[in-house]
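Hi R.,

Here's the chain you asked about this morning:
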Amino acid sequence: MFKSMDNLIRLCKENPPCVFSDLDYTCCLAGNTSYERENERLFGIKKCFLNPNAAKAFLNIRKKGGNVFFVTGRHWDSKRKDPDTKLFIADGALNDLLGGKESPFAKFNAVAGHGRQIVKNGEIRLMRRSSDREQNKAELDFEKFANKKMREAAKQIKKLFPDAAKYVRYECKKNLCYVNIISFPAEQNRKRFEEIFEWLRNQALFTVNGQDCFGNKDLSALPNPNGMFVASFDQSGSAEIRSRSYNKGKALLKSGFLADAMNTGGPILVCGDSLAGEGTDHDMFLAAKTLFQQHNALDRLFLIQVLNNEPELVFDPCAPDIALSSADEFGKLMLSLSE
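And here is the predicted structure, written out as tokens:
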């Protein structure tokens, strides 16, 4: 820990904090039935997978005059087609993680879709891409190409690894597409999971690097415009291709959420789990650190990383001030700071 925990506790007692928190694997574990049961008992809502201590803390902070913002790679509130019933069902972080529109967390402001959506007072505003028309067209064309390649990868997994077929999920949104095998029973066969996931990771990397499914140069591949598209991965089994035209940091700055938080005079906590490589929380950490540095306010900014068995970043410019092992530890810390 690079900043004193005692100092953080002192600052939170003087002024309620503003918290910017990623959802998945930071304060939330999708599918965790113990979290869901406890949240139903506490709040009377279903399908809420926040860590219960974090959930209580977030509501406490708001009651005391602080604020909490969710910053998620998932889109906020949309619909998807159920592959079995072919019916459209509620989708997005609000519905899949936070308990839906009747949840108390539906009132929180947010940045969603890796920065494509700004959610303020329940209204969703879409961020624009580059103002350069040619760049925009090149990005749209590559999005379609990447979506097609990842869709093909999802089909190939089912052929190459039949035991994984029923666990494969593919989805594309406006600025990202992904294939995941998160529901694969990795704890029962870790070696098999790693084999499948390594193949999937390679397909995402090959796509953004202009290679075919074997890693050879693909002369028919569309060029990745200015290297704007990157592949990122989640250790749980998800491979994603997304556009850097949008990111969490840019959206936090354009939304005014970070600047407004800084002006409160209280401590600011920026929390995430994905920092290494093309980690999706790195941009958020960097944006916050740069802004607070410019205003000589770094003493009030605390970068908090939930490690989830990944190594702690030490020499990175966005190295965390506080590193925690899991969402459970995160929940405990939040609750202690909110009381």
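One quick note: The domain at 5-127+246-338 is CATH 3.40.50.1000 (Rossmann fold).

Cheers,
M.
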